[in-house]
Amino acid sequence: MDIHKPKPVHNLREFLSEIGVVVCGIVIALSGEQAIEAMHWSAKVSEARASVREELAETGGFFAFRVRTRDCVGRRLAELDQITDDVAAHHRVAPVGDVSPHLGKLIADDAWQAERASQSLTHFPRDEFDRFSRLYSQQVDMRYWVNKEIEAWAVIRTVEGDPGRLSASDLTAIRGALQQARSFNYLISLNAGDQIARMKALGISPTPIDRDLNTACAPLRRAPPVLPYSVY
User: Fold this and answer.
1) Which domain holds residue 124?
2) Model confidence over 74-110: pLDDT tens digits?
3) Does residue 1 lie within any of the structural domains?
4) Number of domains the chain contains
5) What is the pLDDT of residues 189-214, one digit of tens each?
6) How many Å separate Cα 186 from the centre of its chain?
7) Does 227 reside within a domain?
8) Residue 231 within any structural domain of the chain
């Protein structure tokens, strides 16, 4: 193996030439490293975008369901209001079946949190990141409303069976829960429509609803009024 000794620099021109070679080598190395890193993050951003969009599309299906069932839930709450009033007035009231419209569903943000932890979100275009962030920020409130709505319906279900057995305190609690459920139904359905509009602006279509709307929109199951037992 031949070993070449470095040539001595005789003038400024040769010195600058040597410096130029070194600088060019450094620039090429850094550029190559940056290009590789850019390719890496480009792939990561594409994967993150697909994951987040899929998650939002699933949640969008729930939002579409809530928009379509808003009036159905309102009618069921009105019917339950009437039952409560009838019981309070000591009228004969037919037994009541399952009152819950089964509206609850997890509003997921697992993909968003995972991509945040991996720092992929910091490489999104700023406008796109802001739009995604706005969607997920609003879902924090909606998740809270859904959970509170579930709690309200748990109280309302006290009316199931023979409503005539309910005490005055039971009726007071049910009336309060009915009002809460009415407020949350309004908030959730209204904001669900806004969320769907934001998704569509990003080219995201809600996943088709995978449940029967009749579950939420069917009338309450009732039986004939409970009559006093008579001995002949």
Assistant:
1) 12-217
2) 999 999 999 999 999 999 999 999 998 888 777 889 9
3) no
4) 1
5) 999 999 999 999 999 999 887 566 77
6) 17
7) no
8) no
